[in-house]
Amino acid sequence: MPLVLPDLSKVPITGLSGIAAILVFCLFSGISIASYPGGFTPIDMWLGDYGFPDINPAGAAYYNLGSMLTGLLLIVFYTGLYQHSVASPARTSLRTAGQAAGVFSGISLFIAGYLTPAVMPGNLIASYAFFALTFLAIIFLHMAFRSRPFYSEATACMGLASVALIVLLGVTQALASIEPIVAEWCALFALISWIGLTSRDSYRRARGRCHD
């Protein structure tokens, strides 16, 4: 059976930018992790630690550049959600609020990569802002899109899982005796999954497999 590739001219901007954001983040983070002299360790090392030039001289630039590019792609991803009709003024306002929070989360991620983790407290503030704004973006978009045909049950569940993990990350971060490193990795994995599922839903909607 011949391989049939999708017509990219018919793929919505959210679908393209969302998948591109996942690929860019995973590629550049993977190169950075592979370049780290101490090896891969999600148990006792924050993902952002791979962006420190002092401890990852060969790979920090890849991680920080990947963060900047991913931030730009997330801006496009959230902006493209205007194509989803939500049928009521209240939901439209929620969608707009979610898009705005998402765009600013992308800007925060770009700033975090630009400053690099070695620049404190700027990088730390930008990183906190990224998670906080992502939390708001998913909450608002979930409220705007829930029960709509184009927003699948799997996407909704993964969005709620992302929100729960971000809350867990924030709560454990506030407790000095707990290092929520694993929670950060899990939150990012859930967020990447939600972006991927939302991109898939946008593509299915554009192909006419589901309707507003």
Automatic annotation (TrEMBL):
Bilayer-spanning residue ranges: 12-40, 60-79, 100-119, 125-145, 157-176, 182-199
The organism's taxonomic lineage, starting at the top: Archaea, Methanobacteriati, Methanobacteriota, Stenosarchaea group, Methanomicrobia
Organism: Methanocella arvoryzae (strain DSM 22066 / NBRC 105507 / MRE50)
Record keywords, A-Z: Membrane, Transmembrane, Transmembrane helix
Record's protein name: DUF998 domain-containing protein
Signal peptide: none
Domain of life: Archaea
